[in-house]
Specification:
It is a single chain. The chain has 11 helices and 8 strands. It has 3 domains: about 5-175, Regulatory protein AraC (Jelly Rolls); about 180-225; about 230-285, Orthogonal Bundle (Arc Repressor Mutant, subunit A), CATH 1.10.10.60. The chain is α+β, with helices and mostly antiparallel strands and about 290 residues long. The chain is globular. Strands 1, 2, 3, 4, 5, 6, 7 and 8 form an 8-stranded mixed β-sheet that branches. The longest helix has 20 residues, at about 130-150. A hairpin with a 3-residue loop joins strand 4 and strand 5 (about 55-60). The protein binds beta-L-rhamnopyranose (RM4) and nickel (II) ion. Beta-L-rhamnopyranose (RM4) binds near residues 5, 21, 23, 26 and 34. Nickel (II) ion binds near residues 32, 34, 38, 66 and 72.
């Protein structure tokens, strides 16, 4: 049976959705998946990182994200040291404010975890010594807040976590690895899409932002996100609509236009396809819950 690490066992009983587990060194730990996401920062040693789909060598400086259901394991450990930052993505708004305008954010937190499910590849983000020192400084602040749990720790810990996410997203942009560059170019296109989610966009525009031909853009986008650019845009718009349905009392038709649809019947159909509910019953349920 698949070994799945549980939220109850790895997070504080107060339910705070971030937790840090240092492994100095990492002991042998068999194949497992998690009910949460895991941001791994390798600080020393090396090993073979094996996932259900591929394996690659890890060395100090490597950073990657293992999304929940994916299995992984460390083999051939040679004094491997790492920091695991465990987090529950659904409880944290990772893409706050203008973070989604950083291409590396998409590359590391949305594309990479999904991409590796489909295609064998190596880790792509590799920190320099200086970058590592900066990131570790914030990890230490995060650990202090999580340890003392003084009033306000949740805010402070989240702020440190966000600082780490932001730093890593920016570092990704300096990544020299060719696979990393390809993801980053798709990340650029995603950033552009997010900033312009309300308006129509054509494939040429996106492909040119990613510096790719139409054909290769479509191919790389599909393998990185598992979906087409159009389906991705619709999903983003529906996500936004969900937020507006929950948080405002604007009419469904107005919300449809707000998020970039120009036909509210089409909006309702897409909404139902993705959430399984009509916008109205979605709002009612959320209100009741
Ligand atoms: C293990 C290993 C796993 C991680 C758990 C929390 O020692 O690092 O990958 O999921 O800790
Ligand atoms: Ni793990």
């Amino acid at each position: 049976m698949k070994h799945v690490l549980k939220i109850d066992e790895w997070f504080h009983p107060d339910g705070f959705p971030i937790s840090v587990e240092r492994r100095e060194p990492q002991e042998h730990f068999g194949p497992h998946a998690h009910e949460f996401a895991e941001l791994v920062i390798v600080t020393g040693g090396k090993c073979l990182h094996v996932t259900g789909h591929d394996s690659w060598e890890l060395t100090a400086g490597d950073v990657f994200v293992i999304a929940g259901p994916r299995e992984h394991e460390y083999r051939d450990l040679v004094d491997l040291r790492l920091v695991n930052i465990l987090y529950q993505p659904s409880q944290l708004k990772l893409g706050l404010l203008d973070l989604p305008s950083v291409a590396g954010y998409h590359a590391l937190f949305t594309l990479e975890p999904a991409w590796r499910n489909r295609q064998p590849a190596k880790g792509r983000l590799h920190l320099s010594g200086k970058e590592m020192a900066q990131v570790i400084e914030w990890v230490e602040r995060l650990e202090i807040e999580l340890k003392t749990r003084e009033p306000g720790f949740g805010f402070m810990a989240t702020a440190s976590f966000m600082q780490i996410i932001g730093l890593l997203s920016r570092c990704y942009g300096r990544s020299p690895s060719p696979d990393g560059r390809a993801l980053l170019r798709i990340g650029e296109a995603l950033s552009h899409l997010e900033r312009n989610i309300h308006r129509e966009m054509n494939l040429e525009e996106l492909a040119s932002i990613a510096h790719m031909s139409r054909r290769s853009f479509l191919r790389v986008f599909q393998s990185a996100t598992g979906t087409s650019p159009l389906a991705w845009v619709i999903e983003q718009r529906i996500n936004r609509a969900c937020g507006l349905l929950r948080q405002t009392d604007r009419r469904v038709t107005e919300i449809a236009f707000d998020v970039g649809f120009n036909d509210s019947n089409y909006f309702t159909r897409q909404f139902r396809k993705i959430t399984g509910l009509s916008p109205r019953s979605y709002r009612l349920r959320q209100g009741a819950g």
